[in-house]
Design brief:
Blueprint: H1 54-57, E1 73-76, E2 88-89, H2 91-96, E3 111-114, E4 124-125, E5 129-130, H3 132-140, E6 144-145, E7 149-150
């Protein structure tokens, strides 16, 4: 059994510029005269009609820290509630718990624990950075922060 296309589903392409009787003859749908009606017409990327283009108007001076910006995988303290009393929280245990993506397991993207919510369990935290507020919350619950760079 052959499935056939419905009638009118495909139409032959319009033949351009082959006389006025074809429906797209004469100017071939490009209008009359002007830059865009000519062969090779049009403007380059960023052209603004002769006005000074934006990429030349905006100053390119000074220092930008953007190329040196550090990105972190951030977690709030409240996300650590799924761990048992006395557990060690590190990159491997966070991946196993599904709190950070598995693709970040072997990567060098640093992990940062933020002070958000509450923590009631005694945990040992061994990640790249822990904010001072998060470190205080963890230590107040009886936990410890090991080899973490404490930054606010």
């Amino acid at each position: 059994m052959n499935i056939e296309k419905p009638k009118g589903a495909t139409t032959p392409p319009k033949v351009l510029g082959r006389g006025t009787g074809t429906g797209k003859g004469c100017t071939a749908g490009k209008g009359t005269k002007g830059q865009n009606s000519r062969a090779g017409g049009g403007t380059r990327l960023g052209f603004e009609g002769g006005q000074m283009p934006l990429f030349r108007r905006v100053a390119r001076r000074g220092f930008s820290n953007y190329p040196f910006k550090k990105k972190y995988l951030t977690l709030k303290v409240e996300a650590l509630g799924g761990f048992k009393e006395g557990d060690t929280v590190n990159r491997e245990t966070l991946v196993a718990a599904g709190l950070i993506p598995a693709r970040a397991k072997g990567k060098t993207i640093p992990i940062k624990i933020l002070a958000g919510g509450t923590v009631s369990k005694k945990l040992t935290i061994a990640v790249d950075k822990v904010t001072s507020g998060a470190a205080q919350m963890i230590e107040a619950a009886g936990g410890t922060v090991v080899s973490a760079d404490r930054k606010a």
